[in-house]
Amino acid sequence: MRMTDEQLELIKGQFKSLKARSDFYAKKFADIDLSDVQSQEDFEKLPFSEKDDLRAAYPLGLQAVPDEEIVRIHSSSGTTGTPVIIPYTQQDVIDWATQFARCYEVAGITPLDRIQITPGYGLWTAGIGFQLGAERLGAMAIPMGPGNTEKQLKMMQDLKSTVLCATSSYALLLAEEIAQRNLRDQLHLRKGVIGSERWGEKMRNRISNELGIEIYDIYGLTEVYGPGIGISCDEHHGMHVWDDYVYIEIVDPVTGKNLPDGEVGELVLTTLRKQGAPLIRYRTHDLTRILPGDCTCMCGHRHPRIDTLTGRTDDMFKVKGCNIFPAQVEEVIAITDGASSEYQVMIENISGKDILTVLFETPLEGEAKTRAEEQLALLFKAKCGCSPDAKGVPMGELPRSEKKTKRIFDSRY
Ligand code: ZN
């Protein structure tokens, strides 16, 4: 994706004083003269920012404005040690609200809607982001926060909530409760705004059918405002990202090299206007791709789209020079005629050569099985970039597990 002139100007603008304002970047770019960055190509040579860099700046090392300009902080969940603290200026809060209100608008939500917000409030950016956007839009926010299903259902009925904001798992829980109590007819829900994560089509359909709502995926992360930097539209094909606030890149998670539009890799974000804690080339570890031919979305929005998240870089495996994600293998299995849902990927190294084998269960035998094997190998090559040995095995032959079944076996290391 080409960086637009406006984006380049915004980047060059913030680079003029970035090192003077921020100790963090003074240190990070100590050997780099930022005034040398005059093009997208120059920009792509800058080092990435990692979550660990942000953690090392705890508590307020990321702050790039004087104290009196900071109006609040948020923090990413510190499940693995030190949290990351992000300071916000008044303008940052306004910009976040503007982006979030735009998300609601794309989802067809209006000032007449009543938005029941179930994500958590507090240090985390979730609940408060949904709230900010609702107020900016002019809709009625119902700030529930998570849990207390009884009360959620009561408010949902009494206040005639029309929009549900939730994580996918909480939306499912509510949907099941509503089905069990036969409450569907007493509800006025029409839309769901669900925090984007990798979740199955099956679960989505269940929530959508049981609640009778149209679902939109919202994207964002605490380090970059919070939820609301992008959302899916009525086309339900990828998520538009607000490229006047955030510059997106997709890079190879291993080499860090920029990838062309359409190829799956790691999403890297640069904030274009953020004051309190600007981020330059921040690695999200989220896997996705830029949908090519972006200016043509049928919904009428020109903002570029990223695909539904494929997973996290931590799940990726590399074989024969290709980066492969479990979700891609699942896709290949799903579209191969005669393959059941059960499969295994084996990666071995025999005399210095990587051997990739895909085992899949199939009821087919003889020639029909051979055809399925050939088809799978071709589809795999097209989707993942390299050819496996595909082997059909009888139904029930691959091991099952009550928990998440392990499907990728890498014996190389
Ligand atoms: Zn669209």
What this model shows, in words?
The chain is α/β, with parallel strands linked by helices. It folds into two domains: 225 residues, Rossmann fold (3-Layer(aba) Sandwich); 94 residues, ANL, C-terminal domain (GMP Synthetase, Chain A, domain 3), CATH 3.30.300.30. Helices cover 30% and strands 24% of the residues. Helix 8 links the parallel strand 5 and strand 6. Helix 5 crosses helix 6 and helix 10 packs antiparallel against helix 11. The two termini are 36 Å apart. Bound molecules: zinc ion. The site of zinc ion (ZN) has 6 residues, from loops.
Largest sheet: 8 strands, mixed
CATH A-level architecture of the largest domain: 3-Layer(aba) Sandwich
Number of helical elements: 11
What's the N-to-C terminus distance?
Answer: 36 Å
Q: Report the sheet-strand fraction.
A: 15-25%
The parts where pLDDT drops under 50 for at least 5 residues are none
Number of domains: 2
Shape annotation? globular
- Looking at the structure, the CATH topology of the largest domain is Rossmann fold
Bound molecules: zinc ion
Mean pLDDT: 93
What is the CATH top level name of the largest domain?
A: Alpha Beta
* CATH-assigned homologous superfamily of the largest domain: ANL, N-terminal domain
Radius of gyration: 23 Å
The count of strands amounts to 20
